[in-house]
Design brief:
This protein has a five-stranded mixed β-sheet. A five-stranded mixed β-sheet has the order 15-7-6-22-23. A four-stranded parallel β-sheet has the order 9-8-13-14, with helices on one face. Helix 2 crosses helix 6 and helix 3 crosses helix 13. The chain has two domains: 397 residues, no CATH class; 63 residues, Dna Ligase, domain 1, CATH 3.30.1490. It has 488 residues and is α+β, with helices and mostly antiparallel strands. This is Circularly permuted ATP-grasp type 2 domain-containing protein.
Length: 488
């Protein structure tokens, strides 16, 4: 019995209340897994990995030895939560993305939040993601961020916190969707009981979100997914979403500005493009407006976009809201724009650009997690309790040289979830990235992308740093999973 020896430890565990005591919603799953020999569980685990590889669900690691294409390690023991727990999270995420859209509209136009000194002006002007060429832009319907991935974590008490906002080009949704398909194949007898909220409608909702941006006078809008190309780390996702939506997958070289519109080269000549789902960072998308040496973008795109002749999701300039320093002000944005208290709290954060907070950070580097403001993917980060003295001294110098570029956060005792490693279940730390779509309405797919720190004791869940993933099940209140009387 695989779960018999599992110890949740002194952490919030996603499936267990105590050793041998699964949470009510996990009882059916635990009983089912424990009816199977360990060898059978391992066989199903391998089949799941093989299926993901066969589907091409890989990502690229830049500069990796022995080839750059890898599969994200997948764990077949899912994460479970009740719908009654999910709905407050959903409300909090809708509140947060609404405030972020208000902030982006404001910061590139009237800048009232700066005039009212809610956010220091110098923080915005010094943010790498704040793009002056985008000042004055007014995207369709006032929506800047159409696709968002908000990273969430739990602490030892089980309370939820927002760890980061990803509102520029958030990735991972394809792996989230493929994980569900894998689980349906791996445990069909469990899914046959029903009660797990579906996620496979995401591509349809994404297409609806993009079509909502098209100019009103266009009867049959053309939507494309703009990718940097096959060597991009998330190319599988670009191709996957384009195929699921029935949209064209294009690169910058496939597009051109002609007759005042964005046009796509086809075998039948040029065809007008109305909506771009871009997976290229702002700096590379138009060499006339941003990086002049970019070979990935389309010269003149910003001007056509400014004239409202093409829509772009996410809007150019949204990267300012990904800045980890700006993240600390989101609760203030919610109060300022919406007149509400935040439903979801940030992780307690120190701003190194403020002298007193910087002094505290430098004195407590062995207790804190330090992050560079503009980095992602687990790069530019120091986990103080696990770092060497040499690493802490290096970050101390970096902070002193450029305090604006760093924040520090309390080291939370992140929740853990049983994870199959080498034939035994190990409690591994997890986070959660729900995906939010903002179109005519705000839609959030139940659950999200659960990332797992696959190394024992590690807090780093990013795939580029060796992290893995698992499926996330949100269970309806009437689900058999929630009945302690259910029979496996």
């Amino acid at each position: 019995m695989l779960f018999q020896s599992y110890d949740p430890g002194d952490f919030y565990d996603e499936l267990f209340l105590a050793p041998g005591q699964p949470r009510p919603e996990a009882e059916l799953l635990v009983r089912k897994v424990d009816t199977l020999p360990v060898e059978e569980i391992q066989r199903r685990q391998q089949l799941a990995q093989n299926f993901l590889m066969k589907m091409g669900a890989t990502f690229n690691v830049y500069g990796a030895e022995g080839g750059i294409e890898r599969i994200i390690p997948f764990d077949i023991i899912p994460r479970l939560m009740n719908a009654t727990e999910w709905w407050p999270l959903e409300r909090g995420l809708k509140q947060r993305i609404t405030a972020l859209n208000c902030f982006l509209q404001d910061i590139y136009n009237d800048q009232k939040i700066l005039k009212d000194r809610v956010i220091p002006e110098e923080l915005i002007l010094s943010a790498n993601g704040f793009l002056k060429p985008c000042i004055g832009l007014k995207p369709p319907h006032g929506i800047w961020c159409h696709i968002a991935g908000i990273d969430m974590v739990r602490d030892r008490s089980g309370a939820w916190y927002v760890l980061e906002d990803n509102v520029r080009c958030p990735s991972g949704v394809s792996y989230f969707l493929e994980n569900r398909q894998v689980m349906k194949r791996t445990f069909p007898e469990v899914f046959s009981r029903g009660g797990v909220l579906p996620v496979d409608e995401y591509p349809g909702h994404l297409l609806d979100t993009l079509l909502h941006l098209a100019p009103d006078q266009v009867d049959n809008p053309t939507v494309v997914v703009l990718s940097p190309g096959i060597y991009n780390s998330a190319y599988f996702e670009h191709a996957y979403l384009a195929q699921k939506m029935g949209a064209e997958l294009v690169e910058g070289r496939d597009l051109v500005i002609a007759d005042g519109y964005l046009q796509m080269r086809t075998t039948c000549g040029l065809k007008r493009v109305d909506v771009i789902y871009r997976r290229i960072d702002d700096d590379f998308i138009d060499p006339l407006a941003f990086k002049p040496d970019s070979l990935l973008g389309i010269p003149g795109l910003l001007e056509v976009y400014r004239q409202g002749r093409v829509a772009i999701a996410n809007a150019l300039g949204t990267g300012v809201a990904d800045d980890k320093v700006i993240y600390t002000y989101v609760p203030a944005m919610i109060r300022y724009y919406l007149g509400e208290d935040p439903i979801l709290n940030n992780v307690p954060t120190f701003l190194c650009w403020e002298e007193d907070q910087r002094a505290y950070v430098l004195d407590h580097l062995d207790e804190l997690v330090v992050k560079a403001a503009g980095e992602s993917g687990g790069y530019g980060m120091l986990i103080g309790p696990q770092a060497s003295e040499e690493e802490r001294q290096k970050f101390a110098r970096l902070i002193q040289e450029n305090p604006r570029n760093y924040i520090a956060q309390k080291t939370l005792s992140l929740s853990r979830s049983p994870t199959l490693i080498d034939g035994e279940l190990v409690g591994c730390h997890v986070d959660l990235r729900p995906y939010i779509l903002c179109g005519e309405t705000i839609h959030i797919t139940p659950g999200g992308f659960t990332r797992v720190a696959m190394r024992k004791g590690s807090l780093v869940v990013n795939s580029s740093q060796g992290g893995g993933s698992k499926d996330t099940w949100v269970l309806t209140e009437s689900s058999d999973f929630n009945s302690s009387q259910s029979q496996a």
